[in-house]
């Protein structure tokens, strides 16, 4: 199975424009072939802001634009599975919402995801099932809906005082 990984940072690309970053992501490290399925046009349809900012150096992109570029680079190899770590970290709520919508559309296309995320609302929006880790071990496995509905579990496992039916932050 081909998996794409969203790079934690783009330190290797600060002096390159996003279009170059997409070209570098297109090399299929698994078979040495150009990535199948994802083109720049398709990536730009998912993340239109990258098209608008294609001539800006990657290091000058906003945090949300850098996240989009990192995900786009992973998509260029045509993965069936993505591993995403803390996609909402340091981003404004509106930017997080836009990233979540883009990732939901990828999920609807059949791309699987392992999402590591501290914000419950983001994790629940992207998954049907959640696993909560405490001390490096899985302490709770449940559905996203059940976790969002359980103020008790939110408090016990996440230290969040949520109310039933209200999204925890």
From TrEMBL:
Keywords noted in UniProt: Amino-acid transport, Transport
Pfam families in alphabetical order: ABC_tran
UniProt record similarity statement: Belongs to the ABC transporter superfamily.
InterPro entries: ABC_transporter-like_ATP-bd, BCAA_Transport_ATP-bd_LivF, P-loop_NTPase
Any GO BP: L-amino acid transport
Name of the protein: ABC transporter domain-containing protein
Organism per entry: Sorangium cellulosum (Polyangium cellulosum)
An MF annotation (GO) of this entry: ATP binding
Ranges of residues in domain ABC transporter: 54-86
């Amino acid at each position: 199975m081909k998996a794409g990984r969203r790079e934690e940072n783009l330190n290797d690309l600060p002096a390159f424009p996003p279009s170059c970053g997409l070209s570098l992501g297109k090399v299929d490290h698994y078979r040495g072939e150009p990535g199948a399925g994802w083109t720049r046009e398709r990536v730009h349809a998912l993340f239109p802001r990258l098209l608008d900012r294609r001539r800006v150096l990657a290091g000058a992109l906003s945090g949300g634009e850098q996240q989009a570029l990192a995900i786009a680079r992973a998509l260029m190899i045509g993965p069936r599975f993505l591993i995403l770590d803390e996609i909402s970290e340091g981003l404004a709520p509106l930017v997080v919402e836009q990233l979540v919508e883009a990732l939901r559309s990828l999920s609807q296309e059949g791309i699987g995801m392992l999402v590591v995320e501290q914000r419950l609302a983001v994790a629940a929006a992207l998954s049907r099932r959640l696993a909560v880790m405490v001390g490096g071990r899985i302490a709770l496995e449940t559905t996203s809906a059940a976790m969002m509905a359980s103020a008790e579990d939110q408090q016990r496992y996440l230290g969040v005082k949520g109310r039933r039916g209200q999204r925890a932050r």
